[in-house]
Amino acid sequence: MSSTGIIRLSHLIAMRRDLDKLANNVANIGTPGFKGQRSSFKEHLKEATQSGPEPNANKYVSLVDTGLATTDFTPGPIESTGNPLDVAIKGDGWFVVQTPDGNRYTRDGSFRLNSSGQLVTAVGHPVVTSSGALTFSPNDRNIAIASDGAISTAQGVRGRLMVVKFSNSSDLSPAGNNLFDAPKSQPVPADARLSIGAIEKSNVVGATEMVNLVKLTRTYEMVANMMKKDDDSVEMQRLSDTL
Q1: Which is the most buried residue in 31, 32, 205, 208, by most CB within 10 A?
Q2: CA-based torsion, 180, 181, 185, 189: positive or negative
């Protein structure tokens, strides 16, 4: 493959990765607490290996590298739901949940009680409180969460939601199911304000993401067509040389 072809191929690979992230953002517009993903592009120099009459032969070619994926941690808008178990964090902070792989962190506060009476996330992960994972009995009535995170029933306070923060949000990495992991950082308690009966919506702006998706799809198709024309030209040249 020529140096030009290698450059275009690297561009296609980078755009395909970005397309995947944009498509995922669009798919999660309605996911509470979701944080949009972005790709950071950078130049990657590689020594050309093909010799020949091309100007860049035996020199460095400039390729496209997606670099590191980044997360937009901008808070999403808070929407009232009227559900007493829905909780939104105002400002910095993360809810802590238990998973089979250890504690993980989320901004999705759409909590519920599972069939066993345990307080869990929308996907079923137990919510961590000052008393661990809470399980309520059928006799527990008037379960409520206060703005300071205190969880109570008619019998009194049962625990308090654990809300933490990190010194650097870049230490957080996506862990699937709208969760984040922080293998290189230790969380500390956050003095967060909570909005009860509300959820934080996704910070993805649908109109903006759709425009970006259309633009990137068109560019991808244009570069792919250019590569196809290059391949057709090379094949025609080979056929001509055999005549």
Answers
A1: 32
A2: positive
Beta bridge partners of 88: 195
Q: For 11-36, write each residue's pLDDT tens digit.
A: 667 767 788 888 899 999 999 999 99
Nearest to 197 by CA among 121, 126, 125, 111: 111
Q: How many CA atoms lie within 13 A of 148 on its CB side?
A: 5
- Number of independent structural domains in the chain: 2
Q: How big is the CA angle at 154 (ends 148 and 158), to the nearest 5 degrees?
A: 50
Task: Note whether 150 and 214 are same-domain residues.
Answer: no
Residue ranges making up the domain that contains 92: 78-200
Residue 95 dihedral angles phi and psi, to the nearest 5°? -75, 150
46 shares its domain with 88: no
- On the question of pLDDT at 138 being above 80, the answer is yes
The C-alpha atoms of residue 196 and residue 192 are separated, in whole angstroms, by 13
Give yes or no: residues 100 and 171 share one domain: yes
